[in-house]
Amino acid sequence: MAWPTKAAVPSPHVPGASPSRPTRLADLPGPRGLPLIGNATQLQPRRLHHVLEDWAAEYGPFFQIRLGPKRVLVVADNLVFGDLLRDRPDAFRRFSPMADMIDELGAKGVFSAEGEHWRLQRKLVMRAMTPEVVKHFFPTLIRMTDRLERRWTEAVAAGRPIDMPRDLKRYSMDVTSALAFGVDVDSLEHDDDPLQADVEHMFDVMCRRTAMPVPYWRYFKLPIDRRTDAAVARIKEAVANFIAKARARLAEHPELRLKPSNMLEAMVAARDEPGSGFTDDDLTGNVMTILVAGEDTTANTIAWLLYFLAINPGAAAKVVAEADAVVGNAPPDFAALDRLDYLDAAAMEAIRLKPVAPLLFLEANRPAEVGGVHVDAGTPVWGVMRRTALDEAHFPEAAAFRPERWLHGDHVAGHDDPKRKVFGFGAGPRFCPGRYLAMVEIKMAVAMAARRFTLELDGDASSVKEVFNFTMMPGSLPIRLRPRTQG
To answer: What is the pLDDT, as a whole number, of residue 21?
Structure first.
């Protein structure tokens, strides 16, 4: 079927100008869909970010789509969308169908909470993710990274292919479980680990359900929905076991309430304080949120960074030289991670070019203007986060992998700090609470790879495809590892 062409309608107000009156959402351009369902069938789940990016290229930074009868404002301007992120949780909230869907999957925690409930949960989670807590866990992180290094070294020696995205996801799962819950699930060495498989299935389902105009699964179950229910039940059982073990440790060692040995113990101790306002359901929901959010996002960021280093030998050489100088052959020192400036910049550049969250989904709590477009309360506002990052007006040589643009004093004349235009960890009050842990994990894994191996892409760069699975991941990552002769 050929889709109808776009209608000729007025363009929206340009951000920064002073329009005489706001543009109505209904007057914006956008792809015309079908009766009743709107554009729902055009929103291909695995390519959702590409679909919206292509429409942004055709219709501009502000356009509308329809999910059934509901009009959605799509914003492909990070300067405008950044203001919305900073206006949460009061003026804007997370897209309510997405929040409801995540709650249904059992991860009813800080990610989907709103208002005062969010403020309480944020305190609970932030207390468990401070730099001091991460520093306390650092020896465990060294052990997990050594496990990944051994796996890759043995695979190279035996001539076995390396499924890098798979290994990185399981490495991240092991780190999250050990650091956050005090449990070593060792999924890296077990191909049939059910917990990791269930978490990955949850990402598949969240991606699939995000663009559904009708939540059919609440009324009847397809085979995939029955599989989802079973996966959620198994994850909840694992989480309940994590919490029970944490409570047992706190009962046996009360001193851990003051100096917890992992994030879960810190969260349980905070929940048990008189008048905390937290419930066991809050605790369970946030444990599931950490478990799910801590796996794909960090693993995919590491994967994309290794991809860019494999195809940019000049940048890779700088990462190697820095890792050799700062870390050397001894076990890494926690303070040394702060001196990996170029690696930090390379990570931010990878996030700019391959954001694991290329789309953000919000909803207006009250009538508002977004870039000169009037939206009513309840209007979905979706952010296409990469268009600004690839705009030459904001990033000279935008398509190039150039970590130097993130280093202090290297901004091109006339261009602002790039951190104001790229939101790899969100922005405003609801920035990602796991940002510090994620950056430590990224630096550990990539510094290890740089010190021990030479990375080469096995094939053409165009063969590495982006796949949207609630986060953006490489469909495959054919990187060949060769042991370094020194370092």
So the answer is: 55
Q: What pLDDT is recorded for position 196?
A: 77
Q: What is the 3-state secondary structure (H, E, C) of 418-443?
A: HHHCCCECECHHHCCCCHHHHHHHHH
Q: What is the pTM of this model?
A: 0.87
Q: How far apart are CA 299 and CA 280, in angstroms?
A: 29
Quote the CA–CA distance of 481 and 455 in Å, as a whole number.
Answer: 5
- In Å, what is the CA distance from 106 to each residue of 126, 199, 285, 318, 431? 20, 12, 6, 43, 22
Question: What is the set of domains in the chain, with CATH numbers?
Answer: 35-483 (1.10.630.10)
Specify the pLDDT at position 2.
Answer: 34
Residue 1's pLDDT is: 32
**CA gap 390, 338 in Å, rounded:** 28
| Residue-wise DSSP of 296-355 | HHHHHHHHHHHHHHHH-HHHHHHHHHHHHHHTTTSPPPGGGGGG-HHHHHHHHHHHHHS-
Q: Cis omega (within 30 of 0) on the bond before 89?
A: yes
Across 6-109, where does the E strand assignment appear?
23-24, 62-67, 70-75, 92-94
Residue entry with tokens 């650091």 = 179
Structure confidence by residue, pLDDT tens digits, 276-311: 777 778 788 888 887 777 678 899 999 999 999 999
The per-residue pLDDT for 442 is 95
| CB-based contact 445:148 (threshold 8 Å) | yes
Residue ranges of the chain whose pLDDT lies below 50: 1-20, 412-414, 487
What is 70-95 written as a DSSP string?
EEEEEE--HHHHHHHHHTTTTTEEE-
